[in-house]
Give the backbone structure.
Amino acid sequence: ELKVEQNPLFLSMQEGKNYTIYCNYSTTSDRLYWYRQDPGKSLESLFVLLSNGAVKQEGRLMASLDTKARLSTLHITAAVHDLSATYFCAVDITDMRFGAGTRLTVKP
Amino acid sequence: DTEVTQTPKHLVMGMTNKKSLKCEQHMGHRAMYWYKQKAKKPPELMFVYSYEKLSINESVPSRFSPECPNSSLLNLHLHALQPEDSALYLCASSQEGVWTSMGAFFGQGTRLTVV
């Protein structure tokens, strides 16, 4: 059974700091997705990573995928309060499974 | 149009009621999904329709009954629900039965409360 593990589950950051969220998965896949969810809201697609070594950047967020290690990272650079949200990774093989989510709080 | 539209946004129903959730997309996607999300948890896959046929049913109780009348519409019929079924129900769509290069697009969800 596919397992998707994220860590940390909770992350409290100061504005301006850098940090990385990790997503490990248990079965070979070359497709990994990152989503953002604000409280009470739906999921917003952030990144789609489709091959080993894929790296994508949008603003202060950068995502990468290492399919050999079955690991994806979401790096946050110089965090700002607007980045406070829950971030999910998801892996798609025969079904689509989400990690538990990382609840990020950015404090002034 | 890159939207997935869900109605209603909020629903309160009694345990003996019958209600339906609706989902619509006009992106030409051939796969549509229902997810259930409890508070502070990740979305859990319930059903997948691919080319209007049910392809995945994640052992969901029969009090939840999906229906895909056409490639743009997806319904979730609810009957005799329990309070523990209260959750955010998310509809999503994707180009094919796997998310491929665009991933999945999610609707705003229906916040369901069973009383």
